[in-house]
């Protein structure tokens, strides 16, 4: 909260992609780099500090979690696959060991089939775009999985298991994707903000659906 207190709340929200994306990034056991060394996401609390790509130490303002059954189809026939990245896929200790991330995780990097999107510039890319069936594979566990995401004061890139992932941001098109009737329900999930603009600008462009979310000030 703005007064420095940590408050835990439980919400019932629509099973829509924009709501689910706020939670479905990191699994239990995924290690994020903090001032005190690697910490599992399930142990991270608002008020803890994590290290960003720039080397700065930033305070976690919000942490969300959700229980998901990736292999179960929802009422629209959708599943929410997880992605397993094998050790050393992107170089030595990248990741340090096999890591499993959720459907809304975005990794700093550009697979070959998306290099036309932003040239040689850095891009945050949905992790499923890296799936190759060998080192990066889809997995659909039939049992419940707890997933997490975090917000800092501003959108940032953090180190998770030796790889660089983004913190949560709804994207620059959030206003168009979210109807006015659902906006208050969505904003109620986040105790540290009042409006969508409070998320601030993207730290770098994001790839998705063949397009790039540009940085906006």
UniProtKB/TrEMBL annotation:
Pfam families: Hint_2. This is Hedgehog/Intein (Hint) domain-containing protein. It comes from the Bacteria. Residues 24-171 form the Hedgehog/Intein (Hint) domain. InterPro entries: Hedgehog/Intein_dom, Hint_dom_sf.
């Amino acid at each position: 909260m703005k007064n420095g207190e940590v408050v835990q709340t439980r919400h019932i929200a629509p099973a829509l992609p924009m709501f689910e994306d706020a939670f479905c990034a990191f699994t239990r056991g995924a290690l994020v780099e903090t001032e005190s060394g690697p910490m599992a996401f399930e142990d991270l609390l608002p008020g803890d500090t994590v290290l960003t790509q720039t080397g700065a130490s930033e305070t976690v303002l919000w942490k969300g979690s959700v229980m998901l059954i990736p292999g179960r189809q929802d009422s629209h026939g959708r599943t929410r696959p997880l992605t397993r990245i094998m050790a050393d896929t992107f170089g030595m200790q990248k990741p340090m060991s096999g890591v499993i991330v959720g459907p809304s995780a975005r990794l700093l990097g550009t697979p070959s089939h998306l290099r036309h999107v932003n040239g040689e510039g850095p891009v945050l890319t949905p992790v499923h775009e890296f799936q190759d069936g060998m080192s990066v594979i889809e997995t659909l566990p039939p049992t419940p999985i707890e997933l997490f995401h975090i917000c800092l004061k501003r959108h940032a890139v953090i180190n998770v298991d030796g790889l660089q992932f983004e913190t949560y941001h709804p994207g620059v098109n959030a206003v168009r994707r979210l109807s006015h009737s659902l906006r208050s329900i969505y904003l109620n999930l986040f105790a540290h903000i009042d409006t969508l603009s409070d998320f601030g600008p993207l730290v770098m462009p994001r790839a998705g659906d063949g397009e790039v979310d540009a940085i906006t000030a």
